[in-house]
Design goal:
Elements: E1 4-7, E2 10-17, E3 33-41, E4 46-49, H1 58-68, E5 78-80, H2 92-98, E6 103-106, H3 110-118, E7 124-126, E8 132-134, E9 139-144, E10 154-158, E11 163-167, H4 186-204, H5 208-218, E12 225-228, H6 238-250, E13 257-264, H7 275-284, E14 288-293, H8 299-308, E15 309-315, E16 318-319, E17 322-323, H9 325-336, E18 343-350, H10 356-366, E19 370-378, H11 383-402
Helix pairs in contact: 4-8, 5-6, 7-11, 8-9
This protein binds MU-OXO-diiron.
Amino acid sequence: MHPDKITDNVYRVAAKIGTRDLFEGIWPIPNGVMLNSYIIKGEKKNVLIDLVKDWDGAETAIEDELKELDLEIKDIDIIVINHMEPDHTGSLNTFKDKNPNIEFVCSAKAKPLIEAFYDVHDKITVVKDGDTIDLGGKTLEFYMTPNIHWPETMMTYLVEDGILFSCDAFGAFGRYDSAFDDQLSEAESKMLDTELERYYANIVSSFSTFTLRGIEKVTHLPIKFVCPSHGIMWREDPCKVINWYKKLATYMNGPQEKEITIVWSSMYGNTQAILDSFIKGVESEGVKLHVMQVPQTHESFVLEKVWRSAGIIVGMPTYEYKMFPPMFTVLDQLERSHVNKRKIARFGSYGWSGGANKQFMPFVESMKMDFMGEVEYQGAPSQEDKDKAFALAVEMAKAIKEA
Ligand code: FEO
């Protein structure tokens, strides 16, 4: 890649990650992910905003792009650490080894993490809300935005240029040839639609309350550019991504979209045998439906659809007196991600004994769901079971439409 000019003396230096590795060791990234760093050439000081980790050649890519700007690591005076997670700090010791004079700027909560992760104890400057650093002709201003997505997170604002360096906030999965929102091809735009929401649901959703607080804190600024550390940069319509994130954060406790997601699994086809009745029930009311089978579909993708849906229908058989294990994993993830306050229903077959419901209901309560009912049967579903399923799906769809 080459550096992308944002304004005079401000550039993105980025790496496109295209490996089959899982992001955070959990989340599939079939479309890859961007690791974005930013360089500001001030009259007095050069600053790098956030680093990368040595992943799929990212470290070399950043160094090569700096060279295109006639900069070497020894020319960097300050590295701003907006967020300590290793995707943005993994190269910290590489930079420090090549330039022992480099100064790290971070929040108070990031300092002990830098010490613990990288055994670096000196040349760390802690900043707090509203602190500024004069680079000569350009001024950095810092805003503490904890828990987007770790407790030490902050954002950095470049005053003269109106650029918000937001790190994880306003980020997305996916590799993009286009640098800015106004350059996206139709295919990239389509990818961004799902990959931004999947990134939010996977990485940020648990911290939605903090996301709303963080947005509140920075939206008074005259923001001309939003520059996150994943995904694309926003200059034509920076408000679009800010409002998009606001909407996604609001989904935590609602209102969500008038959509229903059916998440289902089946062992021998007896649970699957009633699936069609639920599908037809939802479709008869014209409510948008997503249908996802687990474990065939990774919970990353389930979470993306469930996060935006006002209704969830969970189908799984009883397995050894408990829930079908892959569905337990999915529900555990939904609970961790704070998928709260939706309408929910359940269906499933059992062999010699039920039991799934006993394990299912604590999830319903923990996530403050509105439980609308269940269809459970021994062996294969009867016509009466199928009619009940259709009626339950219609009831949920109507309730969501009328909400
Ligand atoms: Fe992109 Fe929370 O790190």
